[in-house]
């Protein structure tokens, strides 16, 4: 049950960041769509490059340490967004998002491997289907809840900087819960992929 919660937090982090960053850049700061894409595209390509590295790293280091490191990186990347104003350096936003993507990469690999643990190889397809369904449900509920909170304290019809700050504060609390799960509920010698 705890690992399932941890799994949901990781996918929530993945989708909520992908939604909130463009919303933050375009709606609150007023950055153009092209500039937003130019900020996000290299970071997305970096994630594609980090995936194999994260997979190899997760095989060498215990899942507890990976979970702690991934959660800490997510927390570090989230804290400044809680305090941002509309006068923010776009390079800082890009660096924080790179830290976030790195934390997500570290967090997702061992959890995905653990979720398929105990499933026969003939049933991997069904297991992956269940995982993908779970991802979609968590993504839909998580992003809807964050947008509802962000819109609630914003003027009608818009998302203000205070709304974005609140959404990142909620994420920060969830990432702290992930860190607590990493520290107290994942056994030190347990490798999630074994």
Walkthrough of the structure:
With 194 residues, this protein is an all-alpha fold. The chain has a single domain, classed as Up-down Bundle (Growth Hormone, Chain: A). Helix content is 80%, strand content 0%. It has 6 helices and no strands. Helix 3 packs antiparallel against helix 4. The relative contact order is 0.20. The C terminus is likely disordered.
Structural class: mainly alpha
Mean pLDDT: 84
Coarse shape? globular
Helix tally equals: 6
Tally of distinct domains:
1
Distance between the termini: 18 Å
The proportion of strand residues reads under 5%
Short description:
The protein is mostly helical and 194 residues long. It has helices at 2-29, 33-60, 63-83, 90-115, 124-152, 161-184. 80% of the residues lie in helices and 0% in strands.
How do the helices and strands line up, and which of them pair or pack?
Blueprint lengths: L1 H28 L3 H28 L2 H21 L6 H26 L8 H29 L8 H24 L10
Helix pairs in contact: 1-4, 1-5, 1-6, 2-4, 3-4, 3-6, 5-6
């Amino acid at each position: 049950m705890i690992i399932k919660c941890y799994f949901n937090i990781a996918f929530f982090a993945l989708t909520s960041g992908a939604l909130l960053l463009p919303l933050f850049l375009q709606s609150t700061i007023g950055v153009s769509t092209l500039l937003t894409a130019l900020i996000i595209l290299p970071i997305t390509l970096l994630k594609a490059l980090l995936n194999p590295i994260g997979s190899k790293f997760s095989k060498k280091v215990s899942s507890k340490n990976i979970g702690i490191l991934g959660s800490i990186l997510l927390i570090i990347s989230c804290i400044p967004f809680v305090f941002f104003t509309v006068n923010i350096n776009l390079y800082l936003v890009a660096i924080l998002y790179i830290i976030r993507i790195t934390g997500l990469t570290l967090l997702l690999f061992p959890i995905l491997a653990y979720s398929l643990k105990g499933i026969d190889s003939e049933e991997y397809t069904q297991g992956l289907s269940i995982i993908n369904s779970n991802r979609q449900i968590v993504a839909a509920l998580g992003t809807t809840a964050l947008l509802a909170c962000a819109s609630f304290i914003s003027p009608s019809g818009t998302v203000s900087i205070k709304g974005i700050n609140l959404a990142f504060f909620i994420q920060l609390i969830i990432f702290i819960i992930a860190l607590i799960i990493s520290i107290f509920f994942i056994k030190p010698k347990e490798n999630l992929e074994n």
